[in-house]
Amino acid sequence: MTHRGPIALDGPVASGKTTVGQGVAQTLGWTFIDTGLFYRAVGLLALRANLEEWSNEVVARLAQQSEIATDDTRITIDGEDVSDVIGSPDVAAAASRVAVLSDVRRVLVSMQRKMAEQADGRVVMVGRDIGTVVLWDAPVKIYLDASAEARAQRRHAEALERGDESDYGRVLSDLQERDRRDSERTDSPLKPADDAHVLITDSLTPQQVIENVLKLAELPS
To answer: Are 21 and 201 in contact (CB under 8 A)?
Structure first.
Protein backbone atom coordinates (compact mmCIF):
# COMPACT_ATOMS: atom_id res chain seq x y z
CA MET A 1 0.00 0.00 0.00
CA THR A 2 1.52 3.34 -1.06
CA HIS A 3 0.71 6.64 0.61
CA ARG A 4 1.31 10.24 -0.39
CA GLY A 5 3.28 12.60 1.78
CA PRO A 6 3.77 14.85 3.50
CA ILE A 7 0.49 14.77 5.40
CA ALA A 8 -0.67 18.10 6.85
CA LEU A 9 -2.99 17.68 9.83
CA ASP A 10 -4.71 20.76 11.26
CA GLY A 11 -7.48 21.51 13.70
CA PRO A 12 -8.41 23.40 16.87
CA VAL A 13 -7.19 22.55 20.35
CA ALA A 14 -8.24 19.10 21.63
CA SER A 15 -9.46 17.94 18.23
CA GLY A 16 -7.25 14.85 18.48
CA LYS A 17 -4.45 16.01 16.16
CA THR A 18 -1.57 14.67 18.24
CA THR A 19 -3.08 11.25 18.92
CA VAL A 20 -4.16 10.82 15.31
CA GLY A 21 -0.94 12.22 13.87
CA GLN A 22 1.18 9.90 16.00
CA GLY A 23 -0.97 6.92 15.03
CA VAL A 24 -0.73 7.67 11.32
CA ALA A 25 3.04 8.26 11.50
CA GLN A 26 3.62 5.05 13.46
CA THR A 27 1.53 3.03 11.00
CA LEU A 28 3.50 4.38 8.03
CA GLY A 29 6.89 4.44 9.75
CA TRP A 30 7.14 8.17 9.05
CA THR A 31 8.40 11.12 11.08
CA PHE A 32 5.87 12.82 13.36
CA ILE A 33 6.16 16.56 14.07
CA ASP A 34 3.90 18.44 16.47
CA THR A 35 4.43 22.12 15.65
CA GLY A 36 2.62 23.22 18.79
CA LEU A 37 5.67 22.12 20.75
CA PHE A 38 7.73 24.79 18.98
CA TYR A 39 5.44 27.59 20.18
CA ARG A 40 5.48 26.22 23.71
CA ALA A 41 9.29 26.12 23.56
CA VAL A 42 9.46 29.77 22.50
CA GLY A 43 6.90 30.65 25.17
CA LEU A 44 9.18 29.01 27.74
CA LEU A 45 12.18 30.94 26.38
CA ALA A 46 10.26 34.20 26.77
CA LEU A 47 9.24 33.36 30.34
CA ARG A 48 12.79 32.43 31.29
CA ALA A 49 14.11 35.67 29.79
CA ASN A 50 11.82 37.73 32.06
CA LEU A 51 11.04 40.07 29.18
CA GLU A 52 9.56 43.44 30.04
CA GLU A 53 7.97 43.61 26.60
CA TRP A 54 7.09 40.64 24.40
CA SER A 55 7.79 42.43 21.15
CA ASN A 56 7.88 40.76 17.75
CA GLU A 57 11.58 41.48 17.27
CA VAL A 58 12.78 40.44 20.73
CA VAL A 59 10.88 37.15 20.95
CA ALA A 60 11.77 36.23 17.35
CA ARG A 61 15.44 36.81 18.16
CA LEU A 62 15.15 34.45 21.14
CA ALA A 63 13.70 31.79 18.86
CA GLN A 64 16.29 32.33 16.14
CA GLN A 65 19.25 32.20 18.53
CA SER A 66 18.09 28.94 20.12
CA GLU A 67 18.39 25.43 18.76
CA ILE A 68 14.92 23.91 19.00
CA ALA A 69 14.61 20.24 18.04
CA THR A 70 11.83 17.68 18.34
CA ASP A 71 11.60 13.91 18.32
CA ASP A 72 8.02 12.64 18.31
CA THR A 73 6.49 14.25 21.43
CA ARG A 74 9.81 15.29 23.02
CA ILE A 75 11.35 18.71 22.46
CA THR A 76 14.69 20.21 23.36
CA ILE A 77 16.05 23.74 23.59
CA ASP A 78 19.82 23.95 23.12
CA GLY A 79 20.05 20.28 24.05
CA GLU A 80 17.89 20.55 27.19
CA ASP A 81 14.82 18.30 27.17
CA VAL A 82 11.94 20.58 28.21
CA SER A 83 9.15 18.17 27.27
CA ASP A 84 7.96 17.79 30.87
CA VAL A 85 8.08 21.53 31.53
CA ILE A 86 6.13 22.94 28.60
CA GLY A 87 2.84 21.32 29.62
CA SER A 88 2.25 23.81 32.44
CA PRO A 89 -0.59 26.37 32.22
CA ASP A 90 1.92 29.23 32.35
CA VAL A 91 3.79 27.92 29.32
CA ALA A 92 0.53 27.25 27.48
CA ALA A 93 -0.51 30.86 28.05
CA ALA A 94 2.93 32.05 26.93
CA ALA A 95 2.67 29.94 23.77
CA SER A 96 -0.59 31.68 22.90
CA ARG A 97 1.09 35.07 23.29
CA VAL A 98 4.05 34.27 21.05
CA ALA A 99 1.89 32.50 18.44
CA VAL A 100 0.37 35.82 17.34
CA LEU A 101 3.78 37.39 16.64
CA SER A 102 4.43 37.34 12.89
CA ASP A 103 8.24 37.33 13.09
CA VAL A 104 8.16 34.39 15.52
CA ARG A 105 5.90 32.46 13.17
CA ARG A 106 8.26 33.09 10.24
CA VAL A 107 11.24 31.76 12.22
CA LEU A 108 9.37 28.64 13.33
CA VAL A 109 7.77 27.96 9.95
CA SER A 110 11.24 27.95 8.42
CA MET A 111 12.40 25.41 11.03
CA GLN A 112 9.38 23.22 10.41
CA ARG A 113 9.78 23.24 6.63
CA LYS A 114 13.43 22.22 6.95
CA MET A 115 12.43 19.29 9.14
CA ALA A 116 9.88 18.14 6.56
CA GLU A 117 12.56 18.37 3.84
CA GLN A 118 14.98 16.34 5.93
CA ALA A 119 12.32 13.63 6.25
CA ASP A 120 12.07 13.56 2.44
CA GLY A 121 8.34 14.19 2.64
CA ARG A 122 7.70 11.11 4.77
CA VAL A 123 6.28 13.18 7.56
CA VAL A 124 2.99 13.74 9.37
CA MET A 125 2.95 17.32 10.65
CA VAL A 126 0.24 18.61 12.96
CA GLY A 127 -0.67 22.14 13.97
CA ARG A 128 -3.01 24.98 13.11
CA ASP A 129 -1.49 26.37 9.92
CA ILE A 130 0.16 23.35 8.30
CA GLY A 131 -2.09 22.99 5.27
CA THR A 132 -2.50 26.73 4.79
CA VAL A 133 1.08 27.94 5.41
CA VAL A 134 3.81 25.55 6.52
CA LEU A 135 3.17 22.75 4.00
CA TRP A 136 0.78 24.63 1.75
CA ASP A 137 1.64 22.35 -1.18
CA ALA A 138 1.22 19.06 0.72
CA PRO A 139 -0.68 16.49 -1.37
CA VAL A 140 -2.76 15.40 1.62
CA LYS A 141 -4.38 17.97 3.92
CA ILE A 142 -6.72 16.96 6.73
CA TYR A 143 -8.62 19.27 9.06
CA LEU A 144 -9.94 17.61 12.22
CA ASP A 145 -12.84 19.31 13.95
CA ALA A 146 -15.31 18.65 16.74
CA SER A 147 -17.73 20.70 18.81
CA ALA A 148 -16.26 22.81 21.58
CA GLU A 149 -18.25 20.76 24.08
CA ALA A 150 -16.83 17.45 22.86
CA ARG A 151 -13.28 18.80 22.86
CA ALA A 152 -13.67 20.29 26.35
CA GLN A 153 -15.00 16.98 27.64
CA ARG A 154 -11.91 15.23 26.26
CA ARG A 155 -9.57 17.70 27.95
CA HIS A 156 -11.54 17.46 31.20
CA ALA A 157 -11.42 13.64 31.17
CA GLU A 158 -7.68 13.63 30.38
CA ALA A 159 -6.98 15.93 33.35
CA LEU A 160 -9.00 13.78 35.73
CA GLU A 161 -7.26 10.66 34.45
CA ARG A 162 -3.88 12.26 35.27
CA GLY A 163 -5.15 13.01 38.77
CA ASP A 164 -5.35 16.76 38.17
CA GLU A 165 -8.18 18.96 39.39
CA SER A 166 -10.44 20.05 36.54
CA ASP A 167 -13.63 22.02 36.17
CA TYR A 168 -15.47 21.29 32.93
CA GLY A 169 -16.99 24.78 32.73
CA ARG A 170 -13.58 26.41 33.06
CA VAL A 171 -12.06 24.02 30.52
CA LEU A 172 -14.83 24.85 28.04
CA SER A 173 -14.46 28.59 28.57
CA ASP A 174 -10.67 28.48 28.14
CA LEU A 175 -11.01 26.35 25.02
CA GLN A 176 -13.53 28.72 23.43
CA GLU A 177 -11.22 31.67 24.15
CA ARG A 178 -8.30 29.80 22.57
CA ASP A 179 -10.47 29.07 19.50
CA ARG A 180 -11.29 32.76 19.22
CA ARG A 181 -7.64 33.85 19.40
CA ASP A 182 -6.49 31.21 16.92
CA SER A 183 -9.19 31.97 14.35
CA GLU A 184 -9.06 35.77 14.64
CA ARG A 185 -5.29 36.34 14.60
CA THR A 186 -4.08 38.34 11.62
CA ASP A 187 -1.16 36.06 10.72
CA SER A 188 -2.01 32.46 9.74
CA PRO A 189 -5.46 32.21 11.32
CA LEU A 190 -6.84 28.78 12.11
CA LYS A 191 -8.99 27.56 9.22
CA PRO A 192 -9.17 24.59 6.86
CA ALA A 193 -7.13 24.88 3.67
CA ASP A 194 -9.34 25.23 0.60
CA ASP A 195 -8.33 21.74 -0.55
CA ALA A 196 -8.40 20.07 2.89
CA HIS A 197 -10.56 17.09 3.79
CA VAL A 198 -12.59 18.03 6.89
CA LEU A 199 -13.22 15.20 9.36
CA ILE A 200 -15.73 15.74 12.16
CA THR A 201 -14.52 13.62 15.06
CA ASP A 202 -17.26 14.02 17.72
CA SER A 203 -18.57 10.47 17.32
CA LEU A 204 -15.37 8.81 16.06
CA THR A 205 -12.73 6.93 18.05
CA PRO A 206 -9.08 7.90 17.50
CA GLN A 207 -8.52 4.64 15.62
CA GLN A 208 -11.41 5.37 13.27
CA VAL A 209 -9.96 8.82 12.52
CA ILE A 210 -6.52 7.29 11.90
CA GLU A 211 -8.04 4.83 9.43
CA ASN A 212 -9.86 7.65 7.64
CA VAL A 213 -6.64 9.67 7.30
CA LEU A 214 -4.75 6.65 5.96
CA LYS A 215 -7.45 6.05 3.34
CA LEU A 216 -7.33 9.69 2.22
CA ALA A 217 -3.53 9.47 1.89
CA GLU A 218 -3.55 6.40 -0.36
CA LEU A 219 -2.31 6.86 -3.90
CA PRO A 220 -5.03 6.33 -6.52
CA SER A 221 -4.63 3.12 -8.52
So the answer is: no
Residue 193 confidence (pLDDT):
95
Q: What is the reported pLDDT for 1?
A: 62
Q: Which pairing describes strands 74-77 and 80-81: parallel, antiparallel, or unpaired?
A: antiparallel
Give the amino acid at 219. L
DSSP one-letter string for the chain: --B-S-EEEE-STTSSHHHHHHHHHHHHT-EEEETHHHHHHHHHHHHHTT-S---HHHHHHHHHTS-EEEEBTEEEETTEE-TTTTTSHHHHHHHHHHHT-HHHHHHHHHHHHHHHHHTTT-EEEEESSIIIIITTT-SEEEEEE--HHHHHHHHHHHHHHHT----HHHHHHHHHHHHHHHHH-SSS-S---TTPEEEE-TT--HHHHHHHHHHHTBPP-
Q: How far apart are CA 38 and CA 2, in angstroms?
A: 30
pLDDT of 221 strictly over 70: no
- Give 10-63 pLDDT, tens digit per residue: 999 889 999 999 999 999 999 999 999 999 999 999 999 999 889 999 999 999
